[in-house]
């Protein structure tokens, strides 16, 4: 009778431990990098027949849970999405070491300024939004040991060529230009990042920051694209131009007015830059 009681007690302990530990195992997440020629479709379910709800750009880092049968679930813009594991290379880490930023010379370029307000809509001026975000990002990067140089720290006009020249003179290791987007269609939304067409390091930098921006801001991922912009063409180091969101969209403009949006954007820039150096 005593032996039977001991067995029952043992089974109860096993069941209790299983209740605690099995869910933790089931929800274990891995981190990988999107490895495709263009972009990876995010679907509403684990099947090619399920609807496409978005996409992830090549080089993006993603936290995912392997669901088996070649599919993984991810958190995508506040909902669960599914991606093919055939295009995710595992082994990268979420961990970002502030030490990787320490000692780096980084140029932060808040777009427009002074007589050039940039995009203007919904009670916002682009030059004000991006200066605030740039100052916040610079502060965070400096706290991680970086030598941060801003092309402008006040409301002043700086020529495009001079912005690139500042970075070149200072021997910067990367250049990050911050902007807010505009479109004739007020329905246009989302975040996108640009690099010079022939710069693979610029693409890697843009991808690292784009991933963090979309994750932090919860905006639509418009992807990483190449462009022949002056500040990308004339800089002698990896460079990216970020479009945080659309001032012309009433909802995104309202979010851009908030301190929380600007702080999240600054955090994303810091974390994306840190990821770039760490890898």
Automatic annotation (TrEMBL):
One annotated GO biological process: peptidoglycan catabolic process
Coiled-coil regions, chain positions: none
SH3b domain location: 29-92
InterPro entries: MurNAc-LAA_cat, N-acetylmuramoyl_amidase_3, SH3-like_bac-type
GO CC, one annotated term: outer membrane-bounded periplasmic space
Keywords annotated in UniProt: Cell wall biogenesis/degradation, Hydrolase, Signal
A molecular function GO annotation: N-acetylmuramoyl-L-alanine amidase activity
Keyword Signal: yes
Protein name: N-acetylmuramoyl-L-alanine amidase
Source organism (scientific name): Alkalicoccobacillus porphyridii
